[in-house]
Amino acid sequence: MNGSDDTPLCYANTSTPYIYYPDMGKIYFSAVFSGLGLTSNLIAFIVLIKSCQRTRSLSRSFFLIFLAGLVVTDFMGLLVTGSFVVSFYITHVDWRVSDPTCHFCNFMGMSMVFYGLCPLMLGATMAVERFIGINCPFARSTNITKGRTVSMVLMVWLFAGCISLLPLTGFGSYHIQTPGSWCFLNISPERHDWAFSLLFSFVGLICITVSILLNTVSVVTLIKVCCGPDRNQRRRDHEVEMMVQLILIMTIATVCWCPLLVFIAQTALSGSPMSVRYLLLWIRFATWNQILDPWVYILFRRSVLKRVNPRIDWSRRSSVISLYASFSGNIRRFTRSSLGGNLGSDGTENMEKSNMAPPSTVKPSHSSA
């Protein structure tokens, strides 16, 4: 459809021709996709509430607040966007006729941008919080409270909301996309559309980059503390669990969102015509992030992992620390026995007690000589 003076902006695409094609997709796929995501996030939210009531760790409660914000964002994103898509396949409505003022199209585009950026920004915020909590625990415990944690989540929502409102001020624009079930930012050579496309792409890529860098440093620091000589001074079970969950959230966001963000940046910078086929493909790929995120917390908890491997004492130490202690203890006993048992039984027992925690989890090896 070519643009003209009497054609609303959201229907006068300047990048690719809009094709009204309600038979292009199937309602069953969209309905199952949305239902699975909504159910997953609802289950995760219930689990988070129960965990928040039981937890006694202050750092853990802060992390649960961020997770709750992520789950609520994913749930609302699927609810809003899924309602538009499913209703389109049920009614086969043509938005050019039913929404000549572009109100619904702009709202749909704002929702796509807002609920797309929020998970990436929350992931980066969680990475910053974990980086400070692991590397500067004293500064974190004195400066961060539950109220400030909630404020940080609200600030992320506010910042993402401000970006999504920019096209309404003339900086960028939202346009209906083929097959007519959704609206998104317009990737065109026009200055404002070009700048807004790059803004959306670069904000997402920067959040992913920050998450990767800070989480890498946090993991290295946590491994050093867990496996170092001072590993008995501080409990690290909750911190290991939180880092595992955060790494998985970061990995899912990177795999799901990087193709779309790179595609938008590449198309905008090259000035080449946008491929509708690839845009649909990467959008669907990115939406999997909202479905997979809640299963990270549902499945990767110590209570669940304990059932998978009950031989590890998950209640007293995390899996990483327990495996390390067990492995290092066996290596020490094997090495000492191979050397001829130069150390006495009392010395062996004292050495193991000083290097492994808790003492009750490892039986002292007595020399039979």
UniProtKB/TrEMBL annotation:
Could you tell me what this protein is called? Thromboxane A2 receptor
Q: How does it sit in the membrane?
A: Multi-pass membrane protein
| Membrane-spanning ranges | 27-49, 61-90, 110-132, 153-174, 194-223, 244-269, 281-300
InterPro entries, per database record? GPCR_Rhodpsn, GPCR_Rhodpsn_7TM, Prostanoid_rcpt, Thbox_rcpt
Q: Which Pfam families match?
A: 7tm_1
Q: Classify the source by domain of life.
A: Eukaryota
Keyword Transferase present in the record's keywords: the answer is: no
Q: Name one GO molecular function term.
A: thromboxane receptor activity
Q: Which UniProt keywords apply?
A: Cell membrane, Disulfide bond, G-protein coupled receptor, Glycoprotein, Membrane, Phosphoprotein, Receptor, Transducer, Transmembrane, Transmembrane helix
Where does the protein principally reside?
membrane
For the region Disordered, give the residue spans: 345-369
